[in-house]
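Why does residue order matter? Because the sequence determines the fold. Keep that principle in mind as you read this record.
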Amino acid sequence: MTEKKITIGYIEKCDGSLRLNLLKNKLFQKSQFILVIQSNSKDFSKFMIYPLNVNKILKITVSNVKEIVKELEQFYSILKDFNIIHNTGLTVRKDIFVVEIYLNLRFSDSKYKDLKTSLDKIKNKYIDIDIEEISLNI
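Structure:
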C-alpha cells in the first residue's frame, strides 16, 4: 500500500516547543495538538496543518477504484455523518485512483464499528479500503 499513499499524517503536541508562527493564530491557541499532513513531490513538500483536541484520528485510503463515480458516491455517502478533517481529493498514483480522508474518529469510538461495517459492504475486488489510526508522535 505504501506506493499508493498521497500524504503522510502525524500528530504533534501544540506547545511552546513547536517553532512555527501559526501558534500565534487564534485557531491554534486553544488546541492541544495539531495534525500535520505532508504531501511530497519531486520538487517540494506541502504541509497542511489542522488544530486538534484529540490525540488520535483515523485515515482512510481508498484505492484501485475502477468505477469511479459509483464507488466514490457510495464511499462519500457513508462518510457524510462523520467529521472530515482533510480530503486529498481524487489522485492518480501509478495508474490507480486514490483518495485519502482524515476523520476525527478513533478505533475506540463507538461510531467506528458502524463505519467499518458500512465500508466493508462496498469493499470488493474493484476497490481497496485501508483504515489506519494516527496517534500522537512521541
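The radius of gyration is 16 Å.
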